[in-house]
Amino acid sequence: MSTTIIPLLLDSLASAALIFFAAVGLTLVFSVLRVLNVAHGSLYSIGGYVAASVCLFIASRQLNPYLSFVALLFSAVFVAAILGPLIERSLVRWTYGKSEAVQILITFGLFLILEDLQRLVFGVQSLYEDSPMRLLGTSSIGGVVYLNYQILLVAMAVLVVVGLRLLINHTRLGRLITAVVTDREMAQSIGIDTNRIFILAFSLGVFLAALGGALATPTSGIAPGLGADTMVLAFAVAAIGGLGQIEGAAVASLIVGFARVLAIYLVPSLDAVAPYAAMLAVLLIRPYGLFGSVTARRI
Amino acid sequence: MSFRIGLSAVAIALGLVATPVAAQEKPSTLGLGIFTFTSGPAAAYGMPGKNAADLMLEEINAKGGIGGVPVSATYVDEAQGAQGVIAEYRRLAGEPKNQVMVAALSSANCLALAPIAEQLEVPTVGWNCDTHQLLLDGKSKYVFRPNGNTVPEFVAYAIYLLDRKPDVKTVAIINPDYAFGHDAATIFKAALKALKPDVEVVAELYPKLSSPNYQTEISRLATAHPDVVFSNLWGADLENFVRQATPRGLFTSSQVILALGETVLQRVPMPDGVIVGVLGDGWWMSPDAKENVETVKFAAAYKQRFGEYPVFPSIKMANTLIYVKAAYQAAMQKNGGKWPTRAEIADAMKSSNVATLTGTTQTRADNDGLVDQIVGVTMKSEGRSFPLISDMARYKGNSLMPQPGQDPIAWVSTLKPEFAKTLPKPGSYK
């Protein structure tokens, strides 16, 4: 068992990084817009498809393979710039202040549309492009060979947590977002353009979702159906961390990642249920999640 | 009023009785319902089957169809799930022109469709359908599988492994988490236990079907330090696993067996020495296949049309359509050249022996097929960008199958090392 502790911990971190990217956009959008975006998983897979397509184009034209790293980031920016404002203005804005049931129904409809659109645009078969993974090589840690790309993903996840914290706490935009989150009406009354904040926050959520999909693609490939799987896991993480809590999403990702990896190492038959068992355990003790709190209804 | 109802009932009853007679008239088109995965991760396995069906049906039609009737196919995507597959099956079976169903790829769907095929009395040919549970009761009248099943397929791997690596001590397994994965593990472990009882299974992993990421599983396998890693992952799952495991050194630290490895040889770089096979005899480059002019033509046409050579799901589908055509010919020969009914077609399939592109398929009394099993190892080949299979053994179909009605797992457990010694050795098939 002692020989497996280092691999177990490293795998937990690597798994948590991927899970975090799937969930952080969902939780950010909820914290600002108070909308539970069921289509979040589709945005994740669209990011993956765009990234894989651009990387395949780079490979087919025999361009500098290191461009594929730029392509991963560019794909997420591209998806966010196109889909973020479009979806927020055309659909999501109509759900503000509506009941959760309406929000879920509308974003679920969007999820179904986006899933079909992906099939039309990218086809129904799997796409693979692993240049970024191969370029970075491997390292032997604790007697197990790891991809350096996996370690890069962990570093990227940490960077995103720190970056989001800096954005929220130390920039003008962050303060405006905080004001809107704290009291939407008051923010409007003092002249904050809440519509702009909503577009920016939603697009940032789309960017994070698409970035998650793009970064996962080099090691996993992408196929129809990924959006639904991602969405379910993202909801579990958001629920554990407390909806709307970015640090909560990070800690919840670690918990889910560790639970899943521990199951694979010790009780493989529980692999699929481990994340949800962890969610159940946390919610039984803290019904609003680890970092969530009861919000008083304002009259 | 009641008289009218009575007349109507008689008319309906006469209509029902008359249907089989009408079906004997030669139709303008013969319809086949063909079930495979055309979307999602499993399409990596299912689409080569569909491609082969397209090509074979074109060829059959170019030669005048079956009994002078052109053949058309309606494809059903199995990715929609069992409920949708069953609904589509019932819909297609309701159309008289669709006399035969080629269904299905997924073992789970085959098991779901089998009782409906019996109920509706529609000849249903499992073009893939590996699970040994399909025809276990031996009572099937309308369900046929002109392939091998999981028993000979995975016993063959155990025998080949022990011939090639007789000092194996530890084995790890990573199979998909459904009937096919669990059945394969049970059979492979039972065969190893019977033939070399000191082999220890040090890890057993069953990741969810269509899982895109295997990094943790690969770490777990690496920490178990097994002599052998056995897997029957397939489709995009297999492709993902190979892509992720290769750079992490799994193929160099352990002897890897990829039971469906031939399907990805042309797509994913794979090192030499990986034990792979074709779950039957359907390799387009086997010595028998290379001697068959029809197979060479088929492989060349497939490559020209689809940009890659046929993989074994393609060959399985092509062989299945040859099997269906042979059944029609046999049925028409038996009934004096009339167009056969569904019952006559099923009757012709029973106990048939059909020459295929890669060997023969013999249908036993329980409707299960006897097909040879080819196993070998990957090896780079000059003039090709992908490895081929070398050091092959070709096991006779009947040598690795329990008798009809016998408990398959109990039969595997009775195997003796002496029995394995009587079988062909690696490298003997060339």
Short description:
Chain A has 299 residues and is mainly α. Chain A has helices spanning 2-33, 40-60, 67-90, 100-122, 131-136, 148-170, 172-182, 184-189, 194-220, 226-241, 246-266, 274-285; strands at residues 138-141, 144-147.
Provide an overview of this structure.
- The complex is a heterodimer of chains A (299) and B (430).
- The termini of chain A are far apart.
- Chain A has a two-stranded antiparallel ribbon.
- In chain A, a hairpin with a 2-residue loop joins β1 and β2 (144-147).
- Chain A has one domain: Orthogonal Bundle (ABC transporter involved in vitamin B12 uptake, BtuC), CATH 1.10.3470.
- Chain A is globular and about 60 Å long.
- The longest helix of chain A is centred in the N-terminal third of the chain and has 32 residues, at 2-33.
- In chain A, α2 runs antiparallel to α3 (67-90) and α2 (40-60) crosses α9 (194-220).
- With 299 residues, chain A is mostly helical.
- Chain A has helices spanning 2-33, 40-60, 67-90, 100-122, 131-136, 148-170, 172-182, 184-189, 194-220, 226-241, 246-266, 274-285, and strands at residues 138-141, 144-147.
- In chain A, 48% of the residues are buried.
- Chain A has 12 helices and 2 strands, in the order αααααββααααααα.
- Chain B is an alpha/beta fold and 430 residues long.
- Chain B folds into 2 domains: 2-148 and 290-363, Response regulator (Rossmann fold, 3-Layer(aba) Sandwich); 151-279 and 373-421, Response regulator (Rossmann fold).
- Helix content of chain B is 43%, strand content 16%.
- Chain B has 15 helices and 15 strands.
- Chain B has helices at residues 2-23, 43-62, 82-93, 107-120, 150-164, 179-195, 215-224, 235-245, 250-253, 287-291, 293-306, 312-334, 342-349, 408-413, 417-421; strands at 30-36, 71-77, 98-102, 124-125, 143-144, 170-174, 200-205, 228-231, 255-258, 275-277, 353-355, 360-363, 369-370, 373-379, 388-395.
- In chain B, the strands form 3 sheets. Chain B has a 7-stranded mixed β-sheet, with helices on both faces. In chain B, strands 2-1-3-4-5 form a 5-stranded parallel β-sheet, sandwiched between helices.
- In chain B, α4 (107-120) links the parallel β3 and β4.
- In chain B, α3 (82-93) runs parallel beside α4 (107-120).
- The longest helix of chain B has 23 residues, at 312-334.
- Chain B is globular.
- Mean pLDDT of chain B is 93; it is low at 5-23.
- The interface between A and B is large, with 41 and 33 residues.
